[in-house]
Design goal:
The structure holds 3 protein chains of 3 kinds. Chain A is mainly alpha-helical. Chain A has helices at residues 4-8, 10-18, 22-30, 33-37, 42-64, 73-88, 94-116, 121-141, 143-146, 171-192, 195-205, 209-212, 217-243, 253-266, 272-291, 297-310, 314-327. Chain A has one domain (35-327): Orthogonal Bundle (ABC transporter involved in vitamin B12 uptake, BtuC), CATH 1.10.3470. Chain A is built from 17 helices and no strands. Chain B folds into 2 domains: 2-142 and 285-355, 3-Layer(aba) Sandwich (Rossmann fold), CATH 3.40.50; 145-275 and 361-384, Rossmann fold, CATH 3.40.50.2300. Helix content of chain B is 43%, strand content 24%. In chain B, helix 9 (258-264) links the parallel strand 10 (248-252) and strand 11 (272-275). In chain B, helix 2 crosses helix 11, helix 3 runs parallel beside helix 4 and helix 5 (144-157) packs parallel to helix 6 (172-188). Chain B is globular, with a radius of gyration of 22 Å. Chain C is mainly alpha-helical. Chain C contains 12 helices and 2 strands. The radius of gyration of chain C is 19 Å and the shape is globular. Chain C starts with a helix and ends in a 9-residue tail after the last helix. The chains are: A mainly alpha, B alpha/beta, C mainly alpha. The A-B interface holds A 35, 39-41, 43-44, 47, 137, 140-141, 143, 147-151, 153, 163-164, 167-172, 175, 239, 243-250, 254, 289-290, 293-297 and B 3-4, 6-7, 10-11, 13-14, 33, 35-36, 40, 44, 70-72, 74-80, 82-83, 86-87, 89-91, 103-104, 107-108, 111-112, 115-116, 127, 129, 170-173, 175, 199-200.
C-alpha cells in the first residue's frame, strides 16, 4: 500500500490518515438531525451518545491495543458513581464534575494497568472480568456510600453554565452528550493516528516483535489503558449527569458484555465502528422492545448472528469494503 | 438561548399532542417493568394481574378508553427507567405511569413523574422511600418494613421464640428486611443472636446454614428474592436439620412460593412466612380471583405481584371515575387518598398522608391440606402501616 | 470444630462439582477445539428443559432423563455445528463471541416463549432426596450423587481422550488440522463429534444443576461467567485441570462464606484473579 514517498515521510502518512473524510463530515451533520426531526427520541439519542463514547473507550484498548476486556463497565461505573457522589458533597457543576470523574477513573485504570500488561489472552479477559465483578460487589457492600441496589439517592446536577437545565425532552442531555462524544472522538483520533497509536497496533499484531524493535510496549499499553479508563469514566459521568441517577447496573457485567458486543457489531479498530455499533444496537433494542417487550431479544440475537455470517468484520468493516470495492 | 426556545416550543408541541390524545377520549397508561432479564417472571405475573383486571372490567372508564403501552427496562436500571418514562410522556403522550417491578425503576421514573406532573402508580417496588420522592406517587403493593416489623413483633409475642438468627440476601431489600425484622423483634423483647448476608451469586447456602447451626438459635429469619433461591435455601436448611419444630423458620413469603414448596417437598412443612396476600386464603372475592386468574393463565396461580397489578389497575379505574376521566395528577392523587376497597388480599386503604397501602399482614404456615402442601393463614395483623414514613 | 470443617469441605466440594459438571463441556469446546462457545450455557439450559419435559410430560424417572438431556443437547449442537459453527472456526474469536452471544439471546427468548419465565421444579427419586447419615454427620444425598457423577465423568473423559483411538484423533485434529487430514483423519466429523460431546456434557450439567440452582430462561447467561472461570483457572484443554479448579473454587467459596462471611461475594473472583495472575495458563494448562 505504501509507496516510496510515504515510506520516506511517515509523519505525512500519519497526517493523511488523520485527515477528515467527507463521510465523517456527513456523519456529524447527521447527528444534528434528531433535534429537528425526532425530538421525541432525544433521550434515547443522548444515551446512544454516552454508550458510543463508552464503546470508543473499549475500542482504544480492544481494537487498537488488542487488550480483550470484559470488565470495562468498572471504569464506566466508577466515573458514574464519582460524578454522582461529587454532587452530594454540594458541588453540582457538571463540567468540572466530568473532568474530575474522568481523572478518577483514569487513576484507577492506571493502577489496574500494572496487572493488565502482565497477562494475555484468556487470562487477560478473565482478569478484567474478575476485577469488574469485584468492583460491582464492592459497590454493593458499601451500601452506606452507594445506596446499594436501590441506587445512589439525591444526585443533584446544576444546569450547564448555570443556564441549560436538563429538560424532560432531553435537548440539553443530547446536546451535552453529543459535544462530549465529539471531543472524545477527536481526541481518540489524534491518539490512534499518532506514532503512539501505531506502536499500539504493533503490539496488537505482534507482541514479541515490539520489544525486539525497541518499543517499550508495556508502557504504551499502560498509557492506552489509562486513557481508555478515563474515557469510560467520562462516559459514565455523562450518564449520571444527564439522568441524575446512578445504579449498580452501571458497574454490571452485562454492561461490560453489551459494549463489547456493540463494538464487534459495528467493527473494531475504527472508532466510528464503535459509534455505529452502539447506535444500531440501541436503536434496534428500543424499537424491538417497544414492539414486543417480552421477547424482543430474540431478534437482537438474530441480528448479531446474521451480521457475523454476512459481514464478518462488523458492519462498518463491511461498508468500507463495499465502498472500496466500488472505488477500484 | 436557542436551546431554551427550542425546548419551550417542543414542550408546546408535546402538550398539544397530549391534549389531542385526551380529545380522542383515550387515556394512555405507560407500564415500566423488567419484562426481560432475570426478573422477568415478576413482570409477567404483574402483567397477568393487570390484564385480568382489564378483562373483567372492560377497557373503558368514565367514558374514556384505556390504552396500555408496555416498556421493558431489562432489570434494575434506574437510567433506563428514567429514559422510558421521559419517552412515554413526550413521545407516546401517556397520562399515567405505572408498573415498576423493581425499586431502581420506580426511583428513576419518580423524578420524571414529579417534573411532568404525572400520576404514578407503583405496583410492586417495595422500598419505603419511593412514595416520598414525589407527591404524585401512590403505591398498591407493600413495603418490606411494613411486613417485617410487624412480623418481628409477632415472632416474639406469638411465635414463641426469644432469640433469632437472621440470614438475608445481600442487596438493599434484604438489608431492609433484616433491619425491620430485628426492630420489631428486639423492641418486643427478643434478641438477635447473629446476622448474615448471603451474596446474590449462585444459590449455595451451605456455609451460611452451617453458621446458623453452630449458633443453634431458636429461630431463623430469612429474606431472599423469589426464583432459584427459595428451594435451594429450604433444602440447605433441611440438610442441616434446621427444620420446625426444632428450629423455627420465619421468612417473607417468597420462601414458600408454590414452585418452591413443590421443589422442597415435605421439608417445607411448618415454615412460617409473612405476606400481604395469600393465594390459599378462603374468601369469596379471593376465590373468584384465583379461579379467574388460573383460567386466564394456563393454571398458573396468582402471587403478590399479580395482586399488586390487579389492585393498581383498580386504583387507577376508581380514581378516574372520581375525577370524571380527568388525568390531572393532583386530582388523581386526591381521589386516591383514603380510598378503600375489598381486594383479593382483603381490606386495603390508601393512607391519605403517605399514599402508601394500609393493609392486613398475614402470618402463614406451610401445612398439608388434602395431600397438598400450602400456605395456611394462622394469624392476621390488621391495618398495618409502613413504620418508616415520617419516622425521620 | 473438626466436624464442621469436614462438613464445610464436603459442601464446598459438592458445590465445586456442580460448577464442574456445568463447565466440563466448555473445557472440551473452548479448551480443546479453541472455539469461543459462549452459547455453552444455552446448551446447558436446553438439557435442563429436556429433563423437565422428560420427567414431567413423558413421565421418565429422573435418572433416565439425564441421558436424554445429553442426547438432546448433543443432537441440537451437531445440527448447529454442521450448518453454522463450522464456518466460524477460522473466523476469529470476536466473530465467535458475537455469534454465540446472539445464539444465547435467541435461546433465552425461545425458552421464555415456550416454557414461560417461571422456575421449573423437578421431582427427584426418594433416594436422592434428604440426607445420608455417616459417622454422625449429615450429608445431602444429592450432593453425594453429584460428586460421584463428576468423578465418573472425569474418569471417562480422561480415559477416553488419552487412551482411545477417538481421543488420539481429536488431539491430532486440534493440534494440526492439515497434518491430521494428511494422515487420513476425517477432521470434519471428528470436530462435529467433539462439539457434540462438549454440548452433550453441557446438557447433562444443566439437567444435574436444576436441583441445586433451579432453571429459568436466564440460565444461559447466568452461569456463563462461572463456567468461564472454571475453564480458565483449570487451564485450556485440560479436563483434569477443570476438575481441580472446580474443586478448589467450590471449597474456597464455601469456606470463605463460612469463615469470613463479609468476603463471601468476593472470594470466587479473588481466587480467580490471583491464580490467573500467578499462572496465566491456568493450574494445569499447557497453552
Amino acid at each position: 500500500m505504501l509507496n516510496a514517498r510515504t515510506a520516506a515521510d511517515p509523519h505525512a502518512w500519519l497526517r493523511r490518515q488523520a485527515r477528515w473524510s467527507p463521510w465523517e463530515v456527513v456523519f456529524w451533520l447527521a447527528t444534528i438531525i434528531p433535534f429537528y426531526f425526532f425530538p421525541t427520541y432525544l433521550t434515547l439519542a443522548s444515551q446512544v451518545a454516552v454508550t458510543a463514547l463508552f464503546a470508543i473507550s473499549v475500542d482504544l484498548v480492544l481494537g487498537y491495543a488488542g487488550i480483550i476486556t470484559l470488565g470495562h463497565a468498572m471504569f464506566f461505573g466508577l466515573g458514574a458513581y464519582f460524578a454522582g457522589l461529587l454532587t452530594k458533597t454540594g458541588w453540582g457543576e457538571p463540567l468540572s464534575g466530568l473532568v474530575l470523574a474522568g481523572l478518577f477513573a483514569a487513576l484507577i485504570g492506571f493502577l489496574v494497568s500494572f496487572i493488565i500488561v502482565r497477562v494475555q489472552h484468556l487470562a487477560l479477559l478473565m482478569i478484567t472480568l474478575g476485577l469488574g465483578l469485584l468492583t460491582a460487589e464492592l459497590a454493593n457492600s458499601l451500601g452506606w456510600l452507594t445506596g446499594g441496589t436501590d441506587g445512589l439517592q439525591g444526585v443533584d446536577v446544576w444546569p450547564i453554565f448555570s443556564r441549560f437545565e436538563f429538560d424532560l425532552w432531553g435537548y440539553t442531555a443530547y446536546a451535552y452528550a453529543l459535544i462530549v462524544l465529539f471531543i472524545g472522538v477527536v481526541a481518540s483520533q489524534r491518539i490512534v493516528h499518532s506514532s503512539f497509536g501505531l506502536s499500539l497496533r504493533g503490539v496488537r499484531e505482534n507482541l514479541t516483535r515490539m520489544p525486539a524493535i525497541g518499543s517499550p510496549y508495556r508502557r504504551h499499553l499502560q498509557i492506552a489503558y489509562t486513557i481508555s479508563a478515563g474515557l469510560a469514566g467520562i462516559a459514565g459521568a455523562v450518564l449520571t449527569q444527564t439522568t441524575e441517577t446512578v445504579s449498580l447496573d452501571s458497574l454490571s457485567f452485562q454492561r461490560s458484555a453489551d459494549v463489547v458486543v456493540m463494538l464487534i457489531l459495528g467493527g473494531t479498530g475504527r472508532l466510528y465502528g464503535a459509534i455505529l455499533g452502539a447506535a444500531i444496537f440501541m436503536i434496534a433494542r428500543d424499537q424491538l422492545s417497544g414492539m414486543n417487550p417480552q421477547y424482543w431479544y430474540f431478534w437482537i440475537g438474530v441480528l448479531l448472528m446474521v451480521v457475523v455470517l454476512v459481514v464478518p468484520n462488523g458492519i462498518l468493516g463491511g461498508l468500507s469494503r463495499l465502498v472500496r470495492g466500488r472505488g477500484t | 438561548m436557542f436551546a431554551r426556545i427550542a425546548a419551550v416550543l417542543a414542550l408546546g408541541v408535546g402538550l398539544m399532542w397530549s391534549a389531542q390524545a385526551n380529545a380522542q377520549d383515550t387515556i394512555k397508561i405507560g407500564l415500566i417493568m423488567a419484562y426481560s432479564g432475570p426478573f422477568a417472571d415478576t413482570a409477567n405475573q404483574m402483567q397477568a394481574g393487570i390484564d385480568l383486571y382489564m378483562q373483567q372490567h372492560g377497557d373503558e372508564v368514565a367514558g374514556k378508553k384505556i390504552e396500555i403501552i408496555k416498556k421493558d427496562t431489562g432489570g434494575p436500571k434506574a437510567d433506563e427507567a428514567k429514559r422510558l418514562a421521559q419517552e412515554l410522556i413526550v413521545r407516546d403522550g401517556v397520562d399515567i405511569l405505572a408498573g415498576f417491578t423493581l425499586t431502581p425503576e420506580a426511583l428513576g421514573a419518580a423524578a420524571v413523574a414529579d417534573q411532568a406532573k404525572k400520576f404514578m402508580v407503583v405496583m410492586n417496588a417495595a422500598t419505603s422511600i419511593i412514595t416520598e420522592k414525589s407527591p404524585y406517587i401512590v403505591r398498591t403493593s407493600m413495603t418490606i418494613p411494613q411486613l417485617n416489623t410487624a412480623f418481628g413483633k409477632w415472632a416474639y409475642e406469638k411465635g414463641g421464640v426469644k432469640q433469632a438468627y437472621t440470614l438475608v440476601a445481600d442487596y438493599a431489600p434484604g438489608v431492609d428486611a433484616s433491619t425491620a425484622f430485628a426492630k420489631g423483634f428486639t423492641d418486643a423483647g427478643g434478641t438477635i443472636v447473629g446476622a448474615d448476608k448471603s451474596p446474590m451469586g449462585p444459590p449455595d447456602f451451605s456455609a451460611f446454614v452451617q453458621r446458623i447451626k453452630d449458633a443453634s438459635p431458636e429461630a431463623v429469619f430469612v429474606f431472599i428474592p423469589g426464583g432459584a433461591q427459595p428451594p435451594a435455601l429450604g433444602k440447605a436448611l433441611a440438610e442441616r436439620g434446621l427444620t420446625p419444630p426444632n428450629t423455627q423458620i420465619f421468612a417473607q413469603g417468597e420462601l414458600t412460593f408454590p414452585e418452591a414448596i413443590k421443589s422442597m417437598g415435605d421439608t417445607a412443612k411448618g415454615i412460617i412466612t409473612t405476606f400481604n396476600y395469600t393465594m390459599e386464603r378462603d374468601d369469596p372475592i379471593n376465590n373468584a380471583f384465583v379461579k379467574a386468574y388460573r383460567d386466564a393463565n394456563k393454571g398458573r396461580s396468582p402471587d403478590i405481584y399479580s395482586v399488586g397489578g390487579y389492585d393498581g389497575m383498580h386504583l387507577i379505574y376508581e380514581a378516574l371515575k372520581k375525577t370524571g376521566g380527568s388525568t390531572d395528577a393532583a386530582a388523581l392523587v386526591k381521589a386516591s387518598e383514603g380510598m378503600s376497597w375489598e381486594s383479593p388480599r382483603g381490606k386495603m386503604v390508601i393512607d391519605p398522608e403517605t399514599r402508601d397501602v394500609i393493609q392486613t399482614v398475614y402470618i402463614r404456615k406451610v401445612e398439608e391440606v388434602d395431600g397438598q402442601l400450602q400456605n395456611v393463614v394462622i394469624d392476621e395483623i390488621p391495618d398495618v402501616k409502613d413504620p418508616l414514613h415520617g419516622a425521620k | 470444630m473438626i466436624g464442621n470443617l469436614a462438613i464445610v469441605l464436603f459442601d464446598g466440594l459438592a458445590f465445586g462439582m456442580l460448577l464442574f459438571v456445568l463447565s466440563v463441556g466448555l473445557s472440551v469446546t473452548l479448551g480443546l477445539m479453541n472455539f469461543v462457545n459462549l452459547a455453552h450455557g444455552a446448551f446447558a439450559m436446553l438439557g435442563g428443559y429436556a429433563t423437565v419435559v422428560a420427567t414431567r410430560e413423558l413421565g421418565l424417572p429422573f435418572l433416565w432423563s439425564l441421558p436424554v438431556a445429553f442426547i438432546v443437547a448433543a443432537l441440537v449442537s451437531v445440527a448447529f455445528e454442521r450448518t453454522l459453527f463450522r464456518r466460524l472456526y477460522r473466523a476469529g474469536e470476536l466473530n465467535q463471541v458475537l455469534f454465540t452471544i446472539g445464539l444465547v439471546f435467541v435461546a433465552a427468548a425461545s425458552a421464555a416463549y415456550v416454557f414461560g419465565t417461571a422456575q421449573q421444579p423437578i421431582e427427584l427419586p426418594e433416594f436422592l432426596r434428604g440426607v445420608t447419615e455417616f459417622a454422625g454427620f449429615r450429608f445431602g444425598s444429592y450432593r453425594i450423587f453429584l460428586i460421584v457423577v463428576a468423578l465418573v465423568i472425569t474418569g471417562l473423559l480422561v480415559l477416553g481422550l488419552e487412551y482411545t483411538r477417538f481421543g488420539a484423533q481429536v488431539r491430532a485434529a486440534v493440534d494440526n488440522q492439515r497434518a491430521a487430514q494428511g494422515l487420513g483423519i476425517d477432521v470434519d466429523s471428528v470436530f462435529a463429534m467433539t462439539f457434540a460431546l462438549g454440548s452433550g456434557l453441557a446438557g447433562l450439567g444443566g439437567a444435574l444443576a436444576i436441583e441445586m440452582v433451579g432453571l429459568d430462561p436466564s440460565f444461559g447467561f447466568h452461569y456463563l461467567v462461572y463456567m468461564m472461570i472454571v475453564v480458565s483457572v483449570g487451564g485450556l484443554g485440560s479436563i483434569a485441570g477443570s476438575f481441580v479448579a472446580a474443586s478448589l473454587l467450590g471449597v474456597a467459596d464455601v469456606a470463605g462464606k463460612y469463615f469470613v462471611p463479609e468476603l463471601g461475594a468476593f472470594m470466587i473472583y479473588l481466587v480467580m484473579v490471583v491464580i490467573l495472575f500467578m499462572r496465566p495458563q491456568g493450574l494445569i494448562g499447557k497453552r
